[in-house]
């Protein structure tokens, strides 16, 4: 029967658009305006088969925090295959995820502040959780504007493809979703590479596995037959791992870059009630042998060795008389449980008789050698190590003798290691002596004197008893008078701190008489010292100047401000001294000094390291402004007050000028504070100041980090470049941001991030405080979680051109 053209036209209009099969699941499509919350009835969106779910999962380590994730939903352990933000963005119970009307995902906190977005550049008509494990935002014609497959975390699934520039990042531990120590990268040059990553700086060591397909590798494919391979431009495939005969109809499959740096392919029987994930293939086959880094500790931490178990899992073990730094995180390495051989001049001969050796077979730390002797017999080799205070391990092999010193790196154990080692250990009861109790020779002599005097006194119990009674009377009587007459310091009873109270004598001894000065400021001088504990903890002691009213106030403010804080980007306060007129603060020591020395005193530092420092400072300020129990405005953010630890992690210090706000307080009245070049304009207007003064200072520092120069440099020949904020703004307006990093090859190769950071900085240094973003917004823009809009033209513009 013929059908008229008008009927055909009507049917065409009424029929839904034809879309790919993978998206044709309208019965489970998620409409615009839908939302999820961590707690309640709407916590997940499931795929049509129910195999996968997208939504909020409570963290194993803290059930009050949640992870935005995708997981296998039909199996008992709900294995996670995707999660947001590398685990750095835990969600709280009051947060909300919404598929907004503009067609993108928006994660907001309970105040409505946006935490994360899938991107606002393109729109979608609906979302869907697919049976492949891919969560998509799609238009009615089937085109995808965002998908989880393009933003992987640590796992790749069947039908997923990783294009050039994509990567997997291992989590820190199975239950810790923070970014871990290893990366799988499909590089732009076509090479598939596994890298170890420095924690916490994020820098990469030399690769431990590579496909060596530079110029011909195109993409990493996990096909539906269970094979994972690198597709090559010549039409061939470079195999990586393969599940072999495990069909997708019978088994769930995934491949995960595990916390130990191994890419393992797993299968799980779908119809099993008591099954579990089984590893069927892995790459590399033995990471203990594969990883060999010139710098860093290797697979396991320093003084540890890597062991591959029968089930292909990796374990990190300690040598005899060593223990884990952290038993729950064995990869952090091992420490000796005894006082190591002391290198003081008079003690070496005495100490060497306190040590012995224990034999270890098939173990080696191949990069720790510092001396080699040949020919030398076994006994002489052993004695040579026992008499050498630097020697921790010795290797003897056919008249070759190699001595190794701490820390030991790249440790591995296995039958393939044809080495026999002698590890220096304490002899007999000496093994019970802890590190802090082994004294230098002069202290030992003092100790012998005390023992001699004590023996004489104890020889006459009557005399000793009389002496003891007299001492008690003296201490009781005169101690009471001293306490009555002593000048009391500021009242710290209300600080509520769990800090150690040091005596002045303790700190004088720890700093060797305040001998090594490492810094100074308006309120005092900072000295380096060592605590007399078992770790010889290195400390920085800030000695406040004369006990004038203003310094007394700064001392109390700094105690209150930093004593109650705890964040990895804030310097940790260990204790204080409040004795008579002496006011001292004891901090953890920052071995890489201040940002000033890092940026301005030497060659231009690594760009990626500068990026991490900028992010660290931003996160520290965010904590002070919004996340600390007592909100704090620092008021003196400058490079001298940003310190760097041994891993170049940025930590904010010096809270002497800080202002503490009440819970409901957002602004305060105060006199002008801060340092020239970093002070926000509102300080000079006699108005109430807010946390935006710290945002302004951060913007100046961010430009200094980008350009590796001070904000004001009067000696520059070109007067248009004297003030950094003016000059960079002019460069940005003229489209010449590249001039800000001229000569910096690493930064020039990352111009997209450079421009992003410059735009954030220009937002921060707006003269009007209300135009400046909060530190939360600043942090999100720096991390790329939200787009950076074009900053308005600030009134600070110099009116000159960028040259």
From TrEMBL:
PROSITE patterns in the cross-refs: BULB_LECTIN, PROTEIN_KINASE_ATP, PROTEIN_KINASE_DOM, PROTEIN_KINASE_ST
Cleaved signal peptide residues: 1-24
UniProt cross-references to InterPro entries, sorted A to Z: Bulb-type_lectin_dom, Bulb-type_lectin_dom_sf, G-type_lectin_kinases/EP1-like, Kinase-like_dom_sf, Prot_kinase_dom, Protein_kinase_ATP_BS, Ser/Thr_kinase_AS, SRK-like_kinase
Entry GO CC: membrane
Lineage of producing organism: Eukaryota, Viridiplantae, Streptophyta, Embryophyta, Tracheophyta
PANTHER family according to UniProt: G-TYPE LECTIN S-RECEPTOR-LIKE SERINE/THREONINE-PROTEIN KINASE SD2-5, G-TYPE LECTIN S-RECEPTOR-LIKE SERINE_THREONINE-PROTEIN KINASE LECRK1
Domain Bulb-type lectin residue range list: 30-150
UniProt cross-references to CDD domains, sorted A to Z: B_lectin, STKc_IRAK
Segments traversing the membrane: 450-480
Homology family: Belongs to the protein kinase superfamily. Ser/Thr protein kinase family.
Subcellular location: Membrane
UniProt xrefs under Gene3D superfamilies: 2.90.10.30, Bulb-type lectin domain (2.90.10.10), Phosphorylase Kinase, domain 1 (3.30.200.20), Transferase(Phosphotransferase) domain 1 (1.10.510.10)
Bilayer topology term: Single-pass type I membrane protein
Entry GO MF terms: ATP binding; carbohydrate binding; protein serine/threonine kinase activity
Binding site for ATP: 543
Keyword terms of this UniProt record: ATP-binding, Disulfide bond, EGF-like domain, Glycoprotein, Kinase, Lectin, Membrane, Nucleotide-binding, Receptor, Serine/threonine-protein kinase, Signal, Transferase, Transmembrane, Transmembrane helix
The keyword NAD appears for this protein: no
Gene Ontology annotations of biological process type: response to other organism
Catalytic activity field: L-threonyl-[protein] + ATP = O-phospho-L-threonyl-[protein] + ADP + H(+); L-seryl-[protein] + ATP = O-phospho-L-seryl-[protein] + ADP + H(+)
Descriptive protein name: Receptor-like serine/threonine-protein kinase
All residue ranges annotated as the Protein kinase domain in the record: 512-796
EC number: 2.7.11.1
Organism: Ananas comosus (Pineapple)
């Amino acid at each position: 029967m013929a059908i008229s053209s008008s009927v055909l036209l009507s049917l065409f209009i009424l029929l839904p658009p034809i879309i790919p099969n993978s998206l044709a699941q309208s019965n489970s499509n998620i409409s615009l305006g839908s939302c999820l919350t961590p707690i309640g009835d709407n916590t997940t969106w499931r795929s049509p088969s129910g195999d996968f779910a997208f939504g909020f999962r409570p963290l194993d380590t803290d059930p009050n925090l949640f992870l935005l994730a995708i997981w296998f939903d039909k199996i008992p352990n709900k294995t996670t295959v995707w999660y947001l933000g590398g685990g750095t963005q835990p969600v709280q119970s009051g947060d909300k995820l919404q598929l907004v009307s503009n067609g993108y995902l928006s994660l907001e906190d309970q105040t409505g502040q946006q935490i994360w977005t899938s991107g606002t550049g393109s729109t979608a008509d609906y979302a869907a959780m697919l049976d492949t494990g891919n969560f998509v935002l799609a238009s009615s014609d089937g085109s995808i504007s965002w998908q989880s497959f393009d933003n992987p975390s640590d796992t790749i699934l069947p039908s997923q493809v990783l294009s050039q520039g994509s990567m997997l990042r291992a989590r820190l531990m199975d239950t810790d979703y923070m970014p871990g120590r290893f990366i799988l990268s499909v590089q732009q040059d076509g090479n598939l590479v596994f890298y170890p990553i420095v924690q916490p700086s994020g820098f990469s060591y030399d690769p431990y596995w590579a496909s060596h397909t530079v110029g011909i590798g195109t993409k990493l494919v996990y096909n539906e037959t269970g094979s994972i391979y690198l597709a090559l431009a010549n039409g061939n495939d470079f195999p990586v791992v393969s599940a072999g005969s495990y069909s997708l109809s019978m088994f769930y499959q995934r491949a995960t870059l595990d916390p130990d740096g191994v890419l393992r392919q797993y299968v799980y029987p779908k119809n099993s009630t008591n099954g579990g994930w089984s590893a069927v293939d892995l790459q590399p086959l033995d990471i203990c042998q594969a990883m060999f880094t010139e710098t860093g500790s290797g697979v396991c931490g320093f003084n540890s060795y890597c062991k591959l178990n029968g089930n292909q899992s990796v374990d990190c073990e300690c040598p005899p008389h060593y223990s884990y730094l952290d038993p729950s995180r064995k990869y952090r390495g091992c420490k000796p449980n005894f006082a190591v051989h002391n290198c003081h001049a008079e003690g070496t001969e005495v100490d060497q008789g306190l040590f012995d050796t224990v034999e270890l077979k098939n173990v080696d730390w191949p990069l720790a050698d510092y001396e080699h002797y040949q020919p030398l017999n076994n006994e002489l080799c052993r004695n040579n190590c026992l008499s050498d205070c630097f020697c921790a391990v010795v290797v003897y092999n056919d008249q070759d003798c190699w001595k190794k010193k701490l820390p030991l790196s790249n440790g591995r154990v296995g039958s393939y290691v044809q080495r026999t080692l002698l590890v220096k250990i304490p002899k007999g009861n000496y093994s019970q002596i802890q590190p802090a109790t082994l004294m230098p020779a002069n202290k030992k002599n003092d100790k012998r004197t005390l023992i001699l005097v004590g023996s004489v006194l104890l020889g006459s119990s009557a005399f000793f008893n009389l002496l003891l009674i007299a001492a008690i009377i003296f201490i009781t009587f005169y101690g009471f008078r001293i306490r009555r007459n002593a000048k009391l310091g500021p009242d710290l009873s209300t600080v509520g701190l769990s800090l150690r109270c040091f005596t002045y004598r303790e700190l004088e001894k720890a700093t060797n008489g305040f001998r090594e000065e490492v810094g100074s400021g308006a309120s005092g001088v900072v000295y380096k010292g060592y605590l007399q504990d078992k770790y010889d903890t290195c400390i920085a002691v800030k000695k406040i100047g004369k006990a004038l009213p203003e310094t007394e106030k700064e001392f109390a403010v700094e105690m209150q401000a930093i004593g109650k804080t705890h964040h990895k980007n804030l310097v940790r306060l260990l204790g204080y001294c409040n004795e008579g007129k002496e006011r001292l603060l004891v901090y953890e020591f920052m071995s890489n000094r201040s940002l000033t020395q890092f940026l301005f005193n030497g060659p231009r530092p690594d760009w990626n390291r500068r990026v991490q420092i900028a992010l660290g400072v931003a996160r520290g300020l965010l904590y002070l402004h919004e996340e600390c129990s007592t909100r704090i405005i620092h008021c003196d953010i400058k490079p001298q007050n940003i310190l760097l630890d041994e891993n170049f992690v940025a930590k904010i210090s010096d809270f002497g000028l800080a202002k503490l706000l009440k819970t409901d307080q957002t602004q305060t009245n105060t006199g002008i504070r801060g340092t020239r070049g970093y002070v926000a304009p509102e300080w000079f207007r006699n108005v109430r100041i807010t946390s935006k003064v710290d945002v302004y200072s951060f913007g100046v520092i961010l430009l200094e980090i980008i350009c590796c120069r001070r904000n004001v440099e009067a000696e520059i020949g070109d007067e248009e470049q004297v003030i950094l904020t003016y000059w960079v703004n002019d460069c940005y307006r003229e489209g010449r941001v590249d001039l800000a990093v001229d000569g910096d090859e690493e930064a020039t190769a990352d111009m997209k991030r450079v421009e992003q950071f410059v735009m954030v900085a220009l937002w921060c240094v707006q003269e009007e405080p209300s135009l400046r973003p909060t530190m939360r917004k600043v942090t999100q823009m720096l991390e790329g979680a939200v787009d950076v809009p074009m900053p308005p033209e600030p009134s600070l513009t110099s009116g000159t051109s960028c040259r």
